[in-house]
Amino acid sequence: MLLILLENCPRRRIHKILDHKWNSMILYLLSQNPLRTGELQRCMPGISKKMLIQSLKELESYGLINRKVYEVIPPHVSYSLTDIGKKVVEPLFMLYEWADQNEEILDTIEKNMQKTK
């Protein structure tokens, strides 16, 4: 039997949320602790501040993260997971654990990806 993944099926819908390059990593980092923008950027070398802000706004609009502004000088903002965000991040723990245990497989895949470029 052929499996058909319709546009509105849960398996495709979760990818709409997590497919963005940085979203899953941001959610994973925020599952550890609430973090400020600069802390998040330091935890993910290679992400620009513009891309980080864009990703944070997207995740906030999805209801996955909270943005808390502290009225201090200089002002500071921290981000944390919402209850929904905490549920969404659960399968990422398994995925990242698998990645940690299978680094050689990832190395092979990345080498193959380079060959196709």
Task: Explain what the structure shows.
With 117 residues, this protein is mainly alpha-helical. The chain has one domain: Arc Repressor Mutant, subunit A. The chain is built from six helices and three strands, in the order ααβααββαα. Helix 2 (23-32) crosses helix 5. The longest helix has 19 residues, at 83-101. It starts with 9 loop residues before the first helix and ends with a helix.
CATH superfamily: Winged helix-like DNA-binding domain superfamily/Winged helix DNA-binding domain
Number of structurally distinct domains:
1
Strand content bin: 5-15%
In round numbers, the mean pLDDT is 93
Helix amount, in percent? 55-70%
**Distance N terminus to C terminus?**
34 Å
Structural class: mainly alpha
Compute the number of strand runs.
Answer: 3
Using the CA coordinates, give the radius of gyration.
17 Å
Q: Just name the CATH architecture.
A: Orthogonal Bundle
Write a brief structural summary:
With 117 residues, the chain is mainly alpha-helical.
SSE layout:
Layout: H1 10-18, H2 23-32, E1 35-36, H3 37-43, H4 49-61, E2 65-70, E3 76-81, H5 83-101, H6 103-115
Antiparallel strand pairs: 1-3, 2-3
Helix pairs in contact: 2-5
Question: What labels would you give this structure?
Answer:
117 residues, mainly alpha, Arc Repressor Mutant, subunit A, 3-stranded antiparallel beta sheet, globular
